[in-house]
């Protein structure tokens, strides 16, 4: 199936409303496979609905035929009722019809139609998206617009970041996004979505939208509130007074909305990013990797990190020397990637974020992806050998020891999937340094090419790295001389616009490097675990 259709399914099929918490069931927003299943369910439901409509239509046809039959004697009696009723045949027919036929008509009217179809729809709805799914879909679409600086009018017409995706959004879709934006306190964006919804309502059947729970009055009132909340009071008042539904009451409504200012009920702060991050995401969505790297750096073959590289060197691209950020090309083969995918996908669950202040992992809106740890329990020996081989390759690439923390994290990003800028190190007393220490370096493998979006960016380095299948991005999180944290490694994953993004991360820990890279300078800002004294 094309990315165009999958993108449309990502947003349009996920329709319920606002959520409370996350759940352990299908992840329709992130998983393409589950969206495919959702699309199949949609087909099945449409078949059921069409069959139900056919049964209703058959009943309507029968009722219209009865009406036609019942009208015939009335037409015959028109303007000659007394003569008609004096005819014994017509009198008997009238008596019989009124006594017998109307009883049968009543039974026909009361007879349920398509009860098994209704029961089937009720059963299938148990596996359909719930409120939280739409909340995540709304957040994903809002995040895409905010990050890539897109206009709701363009997106509703199928234009996303300069690409025409073919599909168009309905009035209901735009109204849903307008409502979400309004509840999030983004009133200008809400106004644009609601204006698009209002325009679409003009071209679409009114009764259909009323059945679907959206009316022109609903859209107009929320649009007026959004305009007033964003400071466009005169525009809102003029719109209300020109609308025949409100007329002179428009001024009173404006006064009411001014006195009762809306309060945001959706908090977006946990995943909002600064403008430098957004700018890099915008630039990386339409250019090749490396255009943002400093001109003094270059590509070369790494033959010196370990003796093995003299026989099989890696092609590396230096993106930054301080801090050290390297892009390795073609370090994973297609065969290895195809082995990794089935290892991770069956064990995917919502990826969590480590909260330093709590000392625990938790699901958080700042990260929207599914993750699995490799190797997992009961892994096949052949699969384990693939992971071990990749582990040895990491040591050849980095020149670092990887004895501790042998697990890798397999990650899958879907529609709007992202990770806000963050540090890979913890620098926390709640994170024990007794066994492994903190994360001295990160290796990020890209397992596929991404259709649109999804770059890895370093705002403080003005560096954007689009995905490239089989490649790996490597950087140091900690200064190699002092073992102090390097805040310039602040990085994040841009929202994915289309397709799926598969990556695998391996963190390298500092205590494994104790004799390999000894510290020569004292750190400036380390928070050591209470169970381990400060070595400096």
Automatic annotation (TrEMBL):
It comes from Drosophila melanogaster (Fruit fly). Belongs to the P4HA family. SMART domains: P4Hc. Pfam families: 2OG-FeII_Oxy_3, P4Ha_N. This is procollagen-proline 4-dioxygenase. Residues 1-21 form the signal peptide. It comes from the Eukaryota. Catalyzes the post-translational formation of 4-hydroxyproline in -Xaa-Pro-Gly- sequences in collagens and other proteins. The gene is CG9708. Keywords: Dioxygenase, Endoplasmic reticulum, Glycoprotein, Iron, Metal-binding, Oxidoreductase, Signal, Vitamin C. Its cofactor is L-ascorbate. The keyword Endoplasmic reticulum applies.
